[in-house]
Design a protein that fits this description.
Length: 196
């Protein structure tokens, strides 16, 4: 993308300001990019941990599978998932707080003795499933933001800053040449006046 400009001082000042802003923002963007890169690596390992934890809870509940089949699953639903937004390197990501299950009226004193065990397992499994989904979402958000920041760094570093520098240089040369020609013309006029 070529920068459009005019050969005058106003355009020179505008391009100079744009160049200064981009040169000032570039180190900040590079720091953000490296911080996001580190967070992506960290969150990949957190996602693997969440996957292992979810698999472990499911494995621990294997012995309850026959009972879960007899448990009235329709009585349980996820009522509320408490999520807090936290900023990491300027990016807002969701962080798990708690999950609340809602269950319709069960007469616990009439229910089989294994209901509380199944209910506790389902609660843990729901919590781990929500944590796993949030870990995936966090990683996706961080990777998308890292990619955007990298693109912006490359745009500034490889395209806009060099183009702005070149445009400023061209305008300065033009204005200097114009000034030199003006001075030369004045000298010629002055010399002609002296000769006549």
């Amino acid at each position: 993308m070529a920068i459009q400009f005019q050969y005058n001082k106003t355009s020179l000042n505008d391009l100079g300001k744009q160049l200064k802003v981009r040169e000032g923002a570039l180190p900040i963007l590079k720091n953000k990019e490296s911080a996001l890169r580190a967070e992506v690596i960290k969150h990949k390992s957190l996602l693997k941990g969440a996957e292992r934890s979810h698999a472990q809870v499911r494995e621990e509940g294997e012995h309850l599978q026959p009972l879960i089949g007899r448990f009235p699953i329709e009585c349980i639903s996820i009522d509320q998932v408490a999520i807090e937004n936290r900023k990491i390197a300027g990016v807002s990501i969701p962080v798990f707080q708690a999950v609340a299950l809602k269950f319709s009226e069960i007469l616990w004193h009439e229910a089989p003795h294994w209901y509380p065990d199944v209910f506790a397992h389902l609660e843990r499994e729901a919590e781990e499933a929500v944590k796993l989904e949030l870990a995936r979402r966090q990683l996706k958000i961080l990777e998308r933001e890292r990619k955007r920041t990298t693109q912006k760094v490359n745009l500034y570093e490889k395209v806009q800053i060099p183009d702005l520098r070149e445009a400023v240089k061209k305008i300065k040369r033009f204005l200097e040449d114009k000034e030199n020609l003006s001075k030369a013309a004045q000298k010629i006029v002055k010399a002609r006046k002296m000769d006549s």
